[in-house]
Hints:
Elements: H1 5-15, H2 33-48, E1 52-55, E2 61-65, E3 73-78, H3 92-107, E4 116-120, H4 134-139, H5 145-150, H6 159-165, E5 183-191, H7 196-200, E6 204-210, E7 212-221, E8 225-226, H8 238-256, E9 262-271, E10 277-278, E11 281-290, H9 293-314, E12 317-325, E13 329-330, H10 333-345, E14 350-355, H11 360-364, E15 369-375, H12 391-409
Parallel strand pairs: 3-4, 3-5, 5-15, 6-14
Antiparallel strand pairs: 1-2, 2-4, 6-13, 6-15, 7-11, 7-12, 8-10, 9-11
GO molecular function: hydrolase activity, acting on carbon-nitrogen (but not peptide) bonds, in linear amidines; metal ion binding
Binding site for Zn(2+) 2: 90, 125, 383
Cofactor: Zn(2+)
Amino acid sequence: MKCQQQRLENDFTELSKFGPLENGGFTRLAFSREDVAARGWLQKKMEDAGLEVRIDAFGNISGRRKGLSALPAVVMGSHLDTVPEGGNYDGAVGVLAGLEVIRTLNDNNLETKRPIEVINFSAEESSRFGMATMGSKALAGKFDLDTLNKLVDKNGTSLYQALKECGYAADEIASVTIEPGQIHAFMEMHIEQGPVLEMQGLPIGIVTSIAAPTRFKVSIEGRADHSGNTPMAIRKDALTGASELILGVERIASKEAGEKTVGTIGYLYVTPGAMNVVPGKVELGIDIRDVNMGDKDKAVKAVIELMDAIAERRGLKISYQQLCNDEPVALSDKIIKTLKDAADKLQLPSLIMPSGAGHDAMNMARLTDTGMIFIPSVGGISHNIAELSNMADIYAGTEVLLQATLQLAQE
Ligand SMILES: [Zn+2]
C-alpha cells in the first residue's frame, strides 16, 4: 500500500492559494480571513474523502474515518495557520499528510479496527494572540471564557470575538476539553525547522522529547549622560551591562549548562537611543530552552546570578519578570518504537532526536500516547518566506505515518 505523491503535492499547490504574498511567503494568521478560507478548503477535502467532519467551539477541525469498532481513535494532525511572512510547510505538512494517509486507506478499501482522525488545530502560532498551540491547549482543558476574553490581538480584538466572527461557538468552550483515554494515540508530522536532518543527510527524524522555554523580560537601568562630558569611570551604561549579559547567556547555554541547552536574547530596546547619549535603560528578553528540566534549571540559576553580579559591579539596577517556566515533555516510548519500526520497514534511515520548538504534540502528550515525525527543512530555515521542504521528504514522512497508523489502528 502506497500514498500518492502527486495527490499530496497537489494539496500543497491548492493550499498555496490561501495567504500568498508577493515575496513568495505566506501569511495565514490564526482566525484571519486567509486562515478561515484555508479551513473551508480543508473541510471540503475531508468531506471529499468521506470523513465525518466536526468543528469544536475553538474551531479545531477534525475529520473521522469510521473503524470496525467504536474504540478510541488514532489521531494525526497539526496546523494550517502561519506566522506573518512564513512558509507553506510549517504545520501544513502534518495536516495534509494525515489526510493523505486516510485517502490511501480509502483507495485500498482497508478497514481498521479503530477509527482514524485527522485534525487541524486552531491558532498554533503565537503571532496573533501571544500564546502558542492554543487549539491543542483547548483540548487539554486550558481555556475558559475568561481567558478567551483576556487574550487580545494588537487591534484590540479578543480571542472570544475572533472565534465568534469565524462562527465558532466560543461560549461553549468547556465542551472542547477531552479526557485522557478518549484518544488511543496521537501523531504529528512536522518540518524540523532546524538543520540537523539535512546536515546528516537523513529523511526522517523521530522525536523523543519537546524542549520547553523559560523566559524573562529584563529591565536594566543605569543613567543617561552626555557622551562627551561623562568620564568612562563614572558611567552607568545600561547597554554595556546588557552586552555582558548577552555574551554571558551565550556562554552559559553553550558551555556551562546541559549539552542541549540553548539560550537566546532576541530583542533589545535601548533608551534614549541616541548616538551622543550614554544608554540609560535597556529592555531585553531572554529565552532559555532545554529538553532536560535539570539542565534548564541550572542555566536559569546561572543567568540570574549573572544578572545580580553585573548589577552590583556596574552599579546598575537590573530587574526581571519570569514570563514562563515550562516543563519539557517526553513523548511516548511506544509511539517512538512504532515510528522507528515503520521507518526501518520502509528502509528509510532515521534519527532519534529532540525537538527544540514547541508543538501541539506537547499538549496531546498529556492526553494520550503521542509521537512526532520530523522531515528535513531545506537550509534549516522556517518561520521565514524561504521555508522549504522537499516533496520527496514529505512523501517519505507520510509513508512512515501511514505504516504507524496502520499498526496503531489495529490494536
Ligand atoms: Zn508548526
